[in-house]
Amino acid sequence: MQRSDLVIVTWHQPYLSSYAGGYVRLRQFLKRIPKNIHFVLLDNKKSIYQDILQKEKIIEYQSPQWITSLQNKAFILWFLLETISSTIILYQQSAKLIKSNGAKVLYFPTGEFLQLYIVSLLLKIRFSHIKVILDILNYGILDKNYSTYFNRLKKSETGFIRSVVITVTIWFSHTLMKYTIRHADYIFTVSREFQNKIKRDYHKSTISFTPSGVEVPRLKKKKIAKFLSIYIGRMTVEKGIYEVISTWNEVVKVIPSAKLALGGYADAVTKAAILKELQEKSIKNNVTFLGDVTEEKKAELLEDSELFIHLAHREPLFPVITILEGWSYGLPTIFYDMSVYESALKEFRFSTNCLYAVKNQSVLQAAKAIVNYTKIPIKEKEKLQKSAKANAAMFSWDVIAKKEWDIISYLIAS
Question: How many Å separate Cα 235 from the centre of its chain?
């Protein structure tokens, strides 16, 4: 049987495809995994990493078909049963690989999923000699508290029961995180702010942070942009999609011809709510709703836009991958000011010329910034575009991935 020093334990949300930031991050890491690391990856069917890894490197697993069939019929029931089922399967598969393949290190990326925390804790308890690595993408609720998060979900027409399930699941994940962090041998997180919080809360010394990265595209022929602004990313209440729409409503009052592109995953409930908002605000002709887009289409949209808009109320790190992608195409960014922005600015010292941090999370101020941008001279816009591209160049995936793989390699060898 093939030797596997490293087991990468994953589970992906089938309904998010491969476009969520955590999946993009892992894909970029896997593209750069050192050849001397003998590894295998556990992922639920259909694996979202099969196009970048050799077939023998992936072990696909699947919950019983009767559970899988519930996803579109009874989402909440499916989500609960899938969590339980995948926890059992992942535990059994990982234990088997430890005993039969000589695995030395277990790596749990994209780590806020409940089943991954449970499995990492149980395996560490059972196999104390195994080194467990957690990659913590979120630390704490991305809102003021669980109550405000729950209310925000309800307002987005998620539905009462589904909002309850999502909120409770996140609470369980964060509660269980306390135990998994204590048992983990090494922790990666995504910002200096999170690193300092975890160090303070758990007195952890074996911890470091690796921010998001980007692949800078080749320069393309300059042309007149079709869209004044673009939002690319998951369309969820956490990512501020409804603030983006409200902002554009205010922009159109001043610039009736202003065009906005919306690209990224939206579930059926959110998609219906977005289309309803556009209809009620009478800006349907000003907003191109694209939903999920391919990497090629995303590149085309970014090339065809002038500004990037990102109005999440909270983020685990700054800049997130989508903002970096916007920078790589020279797009100045309109975003809500957040504490992670200030800490990232001190850490990386990137240029702020191309950034507008909206104070007080104000839709009106965001709209004002967009309108003001249209009034500046072309030469000034070109300077902002150069500034954005220079910022993107600071966040190469090659450098970021190497940092993690160097540490993982050391843990395998020690």
Answer: 12
Q: Are 193 and 168 in contact (CB under 8 A)?
A: no
> Does an H or E element contain 271, and which?
helix 268-280
Contact in structure between 352 and 341 (CB atoms under 8 Å): no
Q: Give 373-411 pLDDT, tens digit per residue.
A: 999 999 999 999 999 999 999 998 998 999 999 999 999
Q: Tens of pLDDT along 310-334?
A: 999 888 889 999 999 999 999 999 9
54 CB burial (10 A radius; 0-12, 13-18, 19+): exposed
Query: Which of 188, 181, 128 is CA-nearest to residue 408?
Result: 188
Q: Percent of the chain at pLDDT above 70?
A: 91
Question: What pTM does this model have?
Answer: 0.78
Dihedral, CA atoms, 290, 295, 300, 306, nearest 10 degrees? 80
Question: Contact, 115 vs 180, CB < 8 A?
Answer: no
Q: Which secondary-structure segment (H or E) carries 247?
A: helix 241-254
